[in-house]
Amino acid sequence: MASENLTASGYIQHHLQNLTYGQHPDGTWGIAHGAEEAAAMGFWAIHLDTMLFSIGLGILFLWLFRKAAKKVSVDTPSGLQNFVELMVEFVDKSVKETFHGKNKVIAPLALTIFVWVFLMNTMDLVPVDFLPHLASLLGVPYFRVVPTTDLNATLGMSISVFALIIYYSIKVKGVSGFVGELTLQPFGKWMIPFNLLLEGVGLLAKPVSLALRLFGNLYAGELIFILIAILPWGIQWALSVPWAIFHILVIVLQAFIFMMLTIVYLSMAHEDH
């Protein structure tokens, strides 16, 4: 439910503002009270809510899977064990069908990405005013609960994947092989500048597309939930429930796409011409 003290525009801006901590222009450190203060903090400002939920959900993922592994049973498997086995089998099958190299890191990485991104996306189903209202009672001015609606989080994950792409490209092909792929394809040695431009753009587009695709879809979903919350109470329920049901598909699909593209990109990094 929208706050009575905010206009519709102010309500939207409030719910799209992260809890930002950084250095104020006067040299003091603290929480930003508004988008202008957050922007003035510059590059080294940190979104505390994004860090809280992303790290917290990562710990939840590790705890759940460790709990299932410690209590694994062949005769009487628990519901949690069945769920974990389903996730592991699903990711393992996806890796075997897509990844053509030999690397024991890829499957655990893919499992981590899928479950972690899925958990972060799922926070979008929490009512938009529930946790921010609880935070306001504790004096917290802003509180965004969906880490994947923060471009910093999605870029952070995509840059990590990009670093792995570069690492395995050089490890498998060598420096000369990696540079050769960037400069000698697709038109040969007589078109090296054009090849470098073409392949360089394609390489840099991988982390950018990974980050923006996940961010854009979840940001749009969050914005629609916020817009629905502005409407009268009866209309809210009529619209929010169908949208939430449809958004479940978006939540799962975006986690799957991020995982699959990571597998594909790392598979390409292992392919030596």
From TrEMBL:
UniProt cross-references to Gene3D superfamilies, sorted A to Z: ATP synthase, F0 complex, subunit A
Keyword Phosphoprotein: no
SUPFAM superfamilies reported for this sequence: F1F0 ATP synthase subunit A (SSF81336)
Subcellular location: Cell membrane; Membrane
Entry-linked PANTHER family: ATP SYNTHASE SUBUNIT A, CHLOROPLASTIC
Residue stretches spanning the membrane: 44-65, 105-124, 153-170, 219-239, 245-266
One of the record's GO molecular function terms: proton-transporting ATP synthase activity, rotational mechanism
Keyword tags: ATP synthesis, Cell membrane, CF(0), Hydrogen ion transport, Ion transport, Membrane, Transmembrane, Transmembrane helix, Transport
Role: Key component of the proton channel; it plays a direct role in the translocation of protons across the membrane.
Entry keyword annotation includes Membrane: yes
Natural source organism: Marinomonas fungiae
Single GO cellular component term: plasma membrane
Family: Belongs to the ATPase A chain family.
InterPro entries the record matches: ATP_syn_F0_a_bact/chloroplast, ATP_synth_F0_asu, ATP_synth_F0_asu_AS, F0_ATP_A_sf
Protein name: ATP synthase subunit a
Origin: domain of life: Bacteria
Name of the gene encoding the protein in the UniProt record: atpB
Pfam families, per database record: ATP-synt_A
Topological category with respect to the lipid bilayer: Multi-pass membrane protein
UniProt-listed GO biological process terms: proton motive force-driven plasma membrane ATP synthesis
